[in-house]
Amino acid sequence: MNAIIGQPVSRVDGPAKVTGHATYAAEFDLPGLVHAAMVVAPIPRGHIRSVDTAAAERAPGVLAILTHENAPRLPYHQIPQRPQVDAQSGEQLHVLQDAEVRFNGQPVAVAVAETLEQAVHAAELVRIDYARTPALTIFDPARGRPPSEGNVKAGRVPELGRGEAEAALAAAPVRVEARYTHPREHHNAIEPHVTIAHWEGEHLTLYDKTQWVDNDRKEIAHVFGIPEERIRVVSPFVGGAFGSALRTWPHVTLAAMAAQRVGRPVRLELTRRQLYTSIGFRPHSEQHVALGATKDGRLSALKHEVIQQVGRYEEYAETVLSPTSHLYSCPNLLARYRLVEMDTNSPCPMRAPGVVTGVLGLEMAMDELAVELNIDPLELRLRNYAETDEQKGLPWSSKELRACYATAAERFGWSRRRPEPRSMREGDQLVGYGMATAIYHSDRSAATASVALTGNGGAVVRSASSDMGPGTYTSMTQVAAETLGLPLEQVRFELGDTNLPYAPVHGGSVTMASLGNAIVAACGAAQKKLADLARAAQQGPFSGLPSEAVAFHGGGLARADGSGSVVPYAELLRQHNLGWLEAEGSAQPGEETKKYSSAAFGAVFVEVRVDEALGTVRVPRIIGAYDVGRVINPKTARSQCIGGMVGGLGMALEERADWDARFGRVMNANLAEYLVPVNADIGVTEAIFVPNDDRNFNPLGVKGLAEVAICGVAPAIANAVWHATGRRIRQLPITPDVLL
Amino acid sequence: MPPEPAQSFAVTLRVNGQSFETEIDARTTLLDALRDRLHLTGTKKGCALGQCGACTVLLDGKRVVSCLMLAAMAEGREVTTIEGLARGDELHPVQAAFVEHDAFQCGYCTPGQIMSAVGAIREGRAGSDDEIREQLSGNLCRCGAYANIVAAVRDAATREA
Ligand code: FES
Ligand code: FES
What we know:
The structure holds two protein chains of two kinds.
Chain A: H1 14-19, E1 34-40, E2 46-52, H2 54-58, E3 62-67, E4 89-90, E5 100-101, E6 107-113, H3 116-125, E7 127-132, H4 149-153, E8 159-162, H5 165-171, E9 174-182, E10 194-200, E11 203-208, H6 213-224, E12 231-234, H7 250-262, E13 266-269, E14 285-293, E15 299-311, E16 314-315, H8 322-326, E17 333-342, H9 355-373, H10 377-383, E18 388-389, E19 394-395, H11 401-412, E20 425-426, E21 429-441, E22 447-454, E23 459-462, H12 472-484, E24 491-494, H13 511-536, E25 550-553, E26 556-559, E27 567-568, H14 569-575, E28 580-587, H15 592-595, E29 599-611, E30 616-627, H16 634-653, E31 659-660, E32 665-666, E33 684-689, H17 713-725, H18 736-739
Parallel strand pairs in A: 1-13, 11-12, 15-17, 23-24, 30-33
Antiparallel strand pairs in A: 1-6, 2-5, 2-7, 3-6, 4-16, 8-17, 9-14, 10-11, 10-13, 14-15, 18-19, 20-21, 21-29, 22-23, 22-28, 25-26, 26-27, 29-30, 31-32
Helix pairs in contact in A: 9-17, 12-13, 16-17
Chain B: E1 8-15, E2 18-25, H1 30-37, E3 56-59, E4 62-65, E5 78-80, H2 93-100, H3 110-122, H4 129-135, H5 146-160
Helix pairs in contact in B: 2-5
């Protein structure tokens, strides 16, 4: 049988997606479904003085108006060990539990009506009188403070380093130092967040947009103070999320609350504008990087300070210092992380949270150092190549970054780059080449899966994972099919339901390294169960054989010595009068985390064209080479990478939440004014995977893929803009007004 | 005080060659009518503001964003949605090309992309990569599948030509 892992298989759920038959959370058709619409606070801080719902309640079709005055009091029990996707300190928003307004956009009422139009209309009729109190709406780095204990315990440390960075910096023969910023950015998945809540007696079913059904259930169980067993979360398709659907947001509670009140299933879909305040975002960040180097380009000192905005009611912090700690070899390093409290909804992970920010500052500063030293930017990276993780003092489980540099540079034609800025032109356009390194730490978490071998000769594999787009359905089907020795079409993978075996969060690039190995284990467990039956049988070809004398291959059981024929799964099941046979398997991180540091790597090269008369930057080419360990499906993996490039281009050139400090509000909370890349913005996007197979990290040999794909893109573009124009724009996005 | 909303009334919508009689409200958009009244949920809601293209359908063969059109205005006209493209199990060439070229990840913008592509090809506006990029720039893909979308549309356009 041909290998299935490593083949560019088309998505198994592709036909469902292109025909409109994939069912996303909003689309479950429940009898008696009614609709909810939220009312949100228009002030950044204060409290509600009075609420008048009389007109709203009289409006046609209205079933209920919930406010803090009449909403049920919910226990909001603490989860003993906070899920890593939640803010690690402070207290989440207890929605409709009091009169306080903590941020602009906070849900303060919800209207429930027979139809969506009626609910929206009723929400407009709710009159609320607010008392405004002074708010923190300005990002003032001087107010920066270290992350609090909960976050420090979760690895979001205020400081890390080694050696004597200050002294080494002072003594360094060559130094560069600069400040870089990126604005608040929003996920803007095309599918809005939406929940359908349906109570049947004491049992609640949530059809929800989530990257983690198991955690969604746990959170709502704690909020409502009911046993997890009474909640089921269903989420077979997720229309993009990029981190926004990792944790459970207040609107999920609102939907469940509303459904309880009206005794009907309720759908609550956030509007595009509400998506800027009812879920999280990538926090505004300012960073200061100072590099010291010898004349021949060896880093001798690295100082990196990152300051980010954070909400006031709870504290979300990121692993911003992680890339700085180990991307380059440098004996003296000091990295510092500070948070500035603001009255805003809480930020949350957005693709490569923290790391994309840290890489941005570091990789732009490296480019500045290359200029200062008059060394090619790629050469500078090679001279400071980290052979080990110098912060952890561990070897890499694998690292093919040199191959990434070489492959991408060759493919891009980096050698054609002239070092001086403004030295390359095409017609009236300035041409710039830029590059940057990408890194994202690789993690894995405990996962379980089940495999049912079925009487028709196929298999059904299940786990409560998610597929927000990377192709979990497809890649897990490949892993199972190859492990069982069955053709792809004979295997079906099911996910997105809390009735299925426990899966870890679908985020942080952990899915394949975690769940993939659990599926291999589950396949092995099912095979063992079947083989044991065959060996224990009174008769048959395997009767009485020791376990090592039999082996599975080619879709069935055979004698290990190759004699006799292969008995297919279905035949074995029939012989034992079984319609099907099921087994569970699990996988979890082991000793490898103590022995190795693991990360995915990449090298990104871009070409920009700058029209100086218009201030526009076009990006005709982005070429990236990646070491992500073994690649299960090059087709879907490539899609993830080019998607990351598009996201990075947005970050570099387009994306910015415009913040009105008077009201603590995002002014451009829609897709026409908050710019994201469109088709015409994208030229050639090309991803190459360098061969690797990281068995030190996990048995499947995969690392992680989603996050590394966005890292490095924005700094490579900013560096290319410098090369084209000679202007170092340290504040993203690089929009025409900045360049003019 | 906003005016009292209109009563609901019955309309007949022609969708994918079939007639559907349904109760709507004067404010019901074509998009919401398709999704919530006719349960044709292949047409997606991304913004409800005419900014993302996820809700693109063909109205008398022309591309429109169905979130900016009232359902009542579609009476007597022919609506084609993503559900109306395939013939039984056989995918429309644009649909097949999207699967082949992996022109999506999450799949949420995909029906809109495909309807736009079908419209653009029919109008003869998918002649070059640049033209495809331009014609499909009203359809946002946050998963960033643009390069694959262009490849798929180019492929389907050449196959159909
Ligand atoms: S939903 Fe119609 S354009 Fe976005
Ligand atoms: S495929 Fe996810 S938005 Fe386009």
